[in-house]
Amino acid sequence: MTGGPGSKDEFQCAPLFLSLSSKLNGLDQSHKQQLIESANGVFGFVTKSNKTNKLAYWVIDLKKNPQLTWSEESINNALKQLDSKHGRVDVVVSTDDETLLQILRGKINAMQAFSSGKLRVKGSMAVGMRLEPTLRAFRTKTKAKTASTSQTNTKFKATENLLGEMKAVIKTFSQEERQKLLTKVNLIAVLKVTNPENSNESVTYTLNLSKGNTGEVVLNGPASDHKLNQDITVTVNQKDFELLSSGKLNGQSAYMRGKLKLQGNIFKAMSLDDVFQIAKKQKLKAKL
Hints:
Pfam families: SCP2 (PF02036). The chain is of the alpha+beta class.
């Protein structure tokens, strides 16, 4: 390909790369690891504007820490911007802006574009052949994540609000009060809240209430996403979780009546009532 470097705004595929970068950064660790295992390569893209013949360079690093960068100058410069420890691009894909746009959208198969001469590959053909399934897997994972997020924002809004209140209250604690609570509770719990109308629908959070934790207490997703080992897993439907949080339902009573399921160290779960009702107690305190 010939032509000088162009501005990112000149390329149709630029917004898709920007979106891809944002979604890549938003994936949880387990999905990132799956992409790394399936792709295991550093992909370079050289694309030529169909209008100006100018060039743009993109690099997607899917070897260690998935990330994407753009450069006006060259693939090598894009790689330097990534601060990649791998030191090289495994495969460079060259095509025009329109073709790359359709490949990223899933409208054109990368291998078909290669066979028809619309796309050229330089470097490891083995890595190049993983491009299409990698893009397809990425699109599938981001769609699933979007659906999951949408579900959380609607059917599980009450859970999100209750945990948000808990986070807000804990942030008002002094360092001494926070550590006193965490020392008393000292557990990592995975909270799985199900839809009362359909138990197959659920949302999962991790409560990092371990002694000495100075970071976030409420985390999205299972403990494994955050490289944590849970002590217990709590499963409860949203209506009963609301009752637990308001103090209208006792955790031990809910467990005995089958409204709350526990896996792991059951004795450690005894202190969860104190945690679930943090926001309620703080509101009562404010009224006094």
